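Hi R.,

As promised on Friday, here is the backbone we talked about, encoded as structure tokens. Could you run it through your design pipeline when you get a chance and send me back a sequence?
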């Protein structure tokens, strides 16, 4: 599955530049909290978990004060009482789309909803609803 449609849609709120493939590849790593903690320092992000066949398993968002927000959130997923073990076994890679420093929780959740709609993750179903009748650029005040 291609991440490009989500990248195009979310571009106004991402902190990586348009066409910055090298920066994006640096934000894809093994889906292990200790690896993410060493490589990703985003406070606000949309993250995508992929399995070994590069199928989208999960889309989530995080907006917290610390720079280890993504790693902390991933660790919480793995501690989930019912689904944690299966997630830790099936989530092979994590792509993190860091949001602009001025992003707030609302746009982060909206970006998650749009990314989930575009990527159709196999796991997770509690994504924020999106209004397909409203231009998503309205979420973050920029034109797409």
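Update: got your reply. Pasting your designed sequence below so it's all in one thread:
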């Amino acid at each position: 599955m291609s991440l490009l449609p989500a990248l195009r849609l979310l571009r106004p709120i991402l902190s990586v530049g348009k066409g910055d493939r090298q920066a994006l590849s640096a934000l894809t790593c093994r889906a292990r909290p200790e690896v993410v903690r060493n490589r990703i320092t985003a406070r606000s992000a949309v993250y995508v978990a992929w399995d070994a066949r590069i199928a989208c398993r999960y889309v989530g968002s995080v907006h917290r004060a610390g720079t280890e927000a993504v790693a902390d959130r991933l660790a919480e997923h793995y501690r989930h009482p019912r689904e944690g073990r299966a997630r830790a076994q099936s989530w092979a890679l994590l792509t993190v789309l860091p949001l602009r420093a001025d992003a707030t929780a609302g746009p982060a959740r909206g970006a998650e909803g749009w990314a989930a709609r575009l990527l159709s993750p196999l796991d997770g179903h509690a994504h924020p609803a999106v209004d397909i009748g409203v231009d998503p650029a309205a979420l973050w005040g920029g034109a797409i």
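One thing I noticed while checking it: Helices lie at 4-10, 21-26, 33-39, 69-78, 84-90, 105-119, 137-140.

Thanks again,
M.
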